[in-house]
Design a protein that fits this description.
Radius of gyration of chain A: 24 Å
Structural class of chain B: alpha/beta
Oligomer: heterodimer
Strand order of the largest sheet of chain B: 2-1-3-5-4
Distance between the termini of chain B: 27 Å
Structural class of chain A: alpha+beta
Strand order of the largest sheet of chain A: 3-4-5
Helix content of chain B: 25-40%
Distance between the termini of chain A: 40 Å
Number of helices of chain B: 5
Largest sheet of chain B: 5 strands, mixed
Helix content of chain A: 25-40%
Strand content of chain A: 5-15%
Strand content of chain B: 15-25%
Number of helices of chain A: 18
Number of strands of chain B: 5
Amino acid sequence: MCFKNLPVDFDADGKAFLKPGQTNPYSFDPVTSQRYVRPSSGTGTALADAPPRLKEWSIDPVTRVAGALAVHTVLDLDARVAVEAHSMAMLFRGYEVILKGRDARDAIDISSRACGVCGAVHSTCSSLAIEMAFGICPPPLGVLVRNLGEVAEMFYDHPLHLGLLAGPDYSTAIVSVTNPELISLAERTPSRHAHVHGYRTVKDIMDGLNPLEGKIYLESLEYTRIARVMCTLMYGKYPHPSTLVPGGVSTTITTTTFNEYYANLGKIIDYAKRLAGIWDDLCDFFLEANPRYAEVGERPSNLIQTGIWDDPEAYDATYKNCDAWGQKRYSAPGIIVNGELITTQLTKINMGIEEFVEHSYYDDWTDQGRKAGHFPTDPLGNPMSPYHMWNKETIPRPEGKNFKEKYSWATAPRWDRLSMETGVYGRMWTTAMARQLPDNPYITATGHSLRMVLPRHELPEMELEWKVPARLNALERNRGRAYGVAFTASIGMINLMKAFEYWRKGETKVATSYKVPQDERVGVGFWEAGRGYLTHHMHMDKGRLLNYQINTPSTWNASPRDPFDKPGPYEEAIVGTPILESGRDTDVKGIDILRAIRSFDPCMPCTTHIDTGHGIITREVNSCGCTLED
Amino acid sequence: MHEYATAPIPGFKLSRQPGDPPPGCTLLGGIGLPWLRDLDFGTTWVDRASAEGGWPDNVRFEDLSYAAHRVMHRLEELQPSRLVIVGCMPRGDAPAGTIRRYAVADLPPLDLVEVHERLTEAVGGIIDLDHTIAVCRWAKAFPDDTTIVEVEPEERGFGLGFSPAVERAIDEVLVLVRRGLAGGEESPQ
């Protein structure tokens, strides 16, 4: 059964229907949020016997993440573990409101500005939503150029995160302060992949991650240059390309374009070989030095992915066929619950999504699920919650600022009312388990791993295997992201070879013509950002947008508690994270909490994109969590 | 201080695009934040200056309103011998419309912790003149002759158009930059 919590079932033909006999099937009674109470150590034991040394610990802003994120935690210094966490998106903006009433095509350029890191994912996602609404589909080479642009954009995101944002948490500069005993151990630990990446010991790797001077840090910055060059080849301009249009791209493509792209992809392929080895060595070192590092940032393996990189022969831009073309994507859409693949159908993924605002600075537009949405079903007749994005209304209400009421500008998206995480490792996970990849010479999905053959460039051909991790934690997120560069590069090779095929056949058209429909339409772009899941849901009439909703990866990951008092992924990952620093309690730096948060690659500019409706806010305001009432 | 190693990737050639000026040009770059009134001064100034004409042959214009490390990469590609960056920065220590002109060579030594913080903000997409100055100085991406011209803003809300004080500064900055390029200006102040 697909859904365990939503009031939806399926008949013998697989058609979804609302379970009968319920007046307000999506309604609920919210659960009052509880603060942490230290459990008694046993019957009759007075809690006060050994007063817990609980310490409130706020990080505001969390540095080395994109945008404004604050985290409020409670640490139990006796047990040396985080026992409570609240994740707070501190910034809000206005894309949904800005887009309302505009020409639908404007969404491509405007939504791109939702993110300063990876604007093209939004432009592309918007193009997909518009194509669905307009009833048009790009020619195959247009799909491939779009795919290649998005491959390149991932090469900007992943190296930056591994080298500049998360990487320094494992550098000599940081570890020598928090865990000096690990430095001497790292000096004595040879790197298993030294023959690939050239770092003789794990200490050499940790030196390489030192900010501003480590070789790995500097190299990752340089590789963003290559990513930008590759993006520019496909998009004409980067960041914020202006060549993504409904029905394809408007870039002028020549043989030289593909040849130059290929030359740069070769450099990335070699980099990917080294990067996987570096992070394997680093992750294995920490886990072997202290197995409790597996608890840092650990949470249930519940993941949501929308899939990315279309098969040009399968994609037709229709909602009717989205299950079929979605399953042909080079990176599979999918839902993972407790490590198991539940579905790869985009309609079921879409049907199961709700966006709650119980603890967010917005008003509920549904009377807690009792008021039906504008669209009670999707275009195929599948039931839709009033909390679904096609039904969502954005009503800002920054009031009740406390942890029991509202504490974040992020909403709380849920799938089947479960807190879901998303990321590059998530898309590898669904792709590995789905085993739906078309035949190709570069990637094989085994059901429990991805085997990737990276062709010879300056380094020899190499086979890498990323295995679905048994536990989802901070180190595995980073390891997955490193292998994600190889995964993306392999997909780049597949798409480039296909592009050459179409070019040789003379099928060089990259866009299709269209007319803006004047009747009422809906569309959805299912795509992914570097950090995972991305959707743009739109509703238009007479060529104008009536509603436009952007849902991003960090909206899922950074979400606050939902109406059922279930925490969001950052919060879940922090609670239970042990404090493994070797110093005294008074010297705690919180590095393990920070590793947990940064392993998600937070991107807060994407996460919160609304305005007050009474004027547009242009300054972000950070406030410490301690200003909130208990 | 550590020296940033430019382009350490084996075999990588700096990408120069068709239409890029020859190395050694004088580059007039603007950094602005679109739709944020006075804060968009740099971008708008470059557009107006470019349209006005009458500049020496080796002068080129570029909108540098992107994140610091991307400006760093772009300058390494363009290799100008002289650079003027125009922008608008709220320092809060002078009336709106006040023009500040200073040479990068005269700035105090870099604080590497600050560079790291500014770089990590920049890679997250933040566009900021001070980020660009810090990161490009660290990376040695600026030519020796680099001058910053910045204006104190008044209006920083959402919208188009400058406050009267900043509007007046457009022509003043034009005169200042032209005089500087002609060698009529002694040292930046």
